[in-house]
Amino acid sequence: VQLQASGGGLVQAGGSLSLSCAASGRPFRDYCMGWFRQAPGSEREFVAGIIWNGAITSYAGSVKGRFTISRDNDKNTVFLQMNSLKPEDTAVFYCAATHIWYGEMWSPDDVDSWGKGTLVTVSS
Prior knowledge:
With 124 residues, the protein is mainly β. Helices cover 0% and strands 49% of the residues.
């Protein structure tokens, strides 16, 4: 599956930003979808995941209660709504897909397909 993320940008601390990721090439419903991020000098880390039908979601502890992942299987798109953004959220965000549901244990090594990253910068 090919993934194309969009929606990054510059926002002040406390603000909101929404990311989207459009999928093509394979049946979108076959994939669990998620978002990872990589800050400068840091390893890529799991942010949020959503199961095939959207019934189950999981979040990293650092974003729980602030970020919401959702998907629209008719539009082959997954979303990440980010609220109450903090400077430490600054990172390149990557859309990801996998056939297996890992929940919050989803590792970058377990990703089947990556989208190109989109930069999110949160100013203080």
